[in-house]
Structure formats: structure tokens, C-alpha cells
Amino acid sequence: MRWIETIRARTPEQNQKWLSDLLLDSAITVINEPGLVEARIFRNSSFRNYMAVAFTWDTDAPSPQGSRAALTLARDLKASSLVEHSVWIEEESVVFERSSLSSKR
Questions:
Q1: 18 in Cβ contact with 104 (< 8 Å)
Q2: pLDDT digits (tens, 9 = 90+) for 52-74
Q3: Is this model's pTM higher than 0.85 or not?
Q4: Exposure string over 53-79, b if 16+ CB within 10 A, otherwise e
Q5: How far apart are CA 30 and CA 70, in angstroms?
Q6: Is residue 20 helix, strand or coil?
């Protein structure tokens, strides 16, 4: 089953580099976790100190509270950031791909 978890963090402007470095280090650390498909880091288009990391998993069952790696990262971020951690389960019956959409036109 595919599922994703996202961690969004907003930190004071002076901590922006720290936030960026921590997210990058976390993505590199988690890359060898069983079931991890990809890790991506995003930055808000308007605010440099508002960032997110998204982990995509493919496991037998999702972890409702999130992965150990993401829970640890969220805990570390809470020391100096506003943090939101959420887990999303893919709806397997609804999959859109660009190639299948363009071929139906």
C-alpha cells in the first residue's frame, strides 16, 4: 500500500538555514528505510522559512501515526519551529497519470 507523510515547518527567518539543513539531513538519513520510495523537500513559494518534507512509502500497511523517522524529525523541529505532521493513504481506485489523461482527449 502506498502512503505519504508530510512534515511542514515554519521557523523564524534567522533559522532558515538550520531548517533547510535539518530537512536535507533527515531526507538523506531516511533514504535506506525499508519501504521508502522517495523523499522530497519543498520550500514555500513566498516564505523561505516555511518548508516541507514529503516521504512516499510502499509498505504492507501504513503507519497511522507516521514513520519512526518522521516522528523523530517532527520532534526535533518542534524545538524551534511550528510543525505539522500528517499521514495520507493513497486511494488506489483513483489514479491519474498524464499519459492516460492525454490519450483520452
A1: no
A2: 999 999 999 988 899 988 998 89
A3: no
A4: bbbbbeeeebeeebbebbeebbeebee
A5: 9
A6: helix
